[in-house]
Amino acid sequence: MYKNIKLLIVIAAGLLLFQACKKEAALVAEARNYGYTVPQGNHTYDKTITDFYNNYGSYLLYKFTDKDTYWTPTGWKNATIDATGTGSAGYLVSRIDTTSTDYITPQLRVLNKLWFGFYSDKFLKQFLPVKIMLCSSVDSIYPTYSFTPTYHAVKTDAVVAAWFNYDNLSVNYGNANVFTMVQKDSIAFAKKVNLIFMQSIFTRNLSSPTVDFAAVTTYSSTITTVAAAYAAGIITPYSGATSQLDWAQYVQAMVTCTETTLNKSQANTIQSFTGILNAAKDTNGKIRQRYNIVRNYFINNYGVDLQAIGNYAGR
Fold first, then answer.
1. pTM of this prediction?
2. What is the domain range of residue 72?
3. For the chain, N or C: smaller number of CB within 10 Å?
4. Please, is 12 exposed, middle or buried when counting C-beta atoms within 10 Å of its C-beta (0-12, 13-18, 19+)?
5. Where are the alpha helices (H) located in the chain, listed in sequence order?
């Protein structure tokens, strides 16, 4: 009798534990509900957007609020600068007019060719931001200064290909310009949007240097010149350089520069990506060693050659 009661207690405890695990799993799943729904309409491109979410878990949104794109836990990032240059710098986006011309279908083709197409499914599933805002325009707003007639600040507006903010990335070309892109436009967009994508990955702390990359050099206060930093394999400005910052810089060099540019001869006193693989800067071969480590890491682990982005020639 005692044994039967003990067995029943064990079974009951096990059932309670099982139910608790089920409830905990449900809570985790609920936490991944970001409050967005696709499709947002019944256009032909909405199926493409829905398929994208089903494949990668990232929302392509053409209907979104100011909070969706500008808000962060540390404050709103939209620009507030007025014509006199007073206010905070930041960015502003315009939403796509979906009532007349279809700009979204060609915009999605551009994104697939010049952004998503460079990466494997594994890479996209791991690194895409939660939200991608499909915008009519993305503008960087900041103050500049004029001396005419007297020294004063003025508002400056620069159109940009993309902008990353917290958990989202806003992209341009949801406008008439998408129909007239030429080779130089495609190259510029590819380099910029992929640079912003890489910066978003590092901002979210999703990629870290490997052990072999970190082991190549020692970050030391004795490095006090650009030339000495290059000799040690450091391409980040040497003041405050870390292995993590260098890892990010090597990635950014690959996605923004051609191999020709990286191999071009330039004096080792000039801080730039140009010539970092040339012996004039890479006097000890440590930059090329670290470059190969980074490039091969993404090839071997994700099937992605980041240098292919930098080499893109608008074909």
1. 0.86
2. 44-181
3. N
4. exposed
5. 2-31, 44-56, 66-70, 104-114, 121-127, 183-203, 211-215, 226-231, 243-256, 259-263, 286-302, 307-310
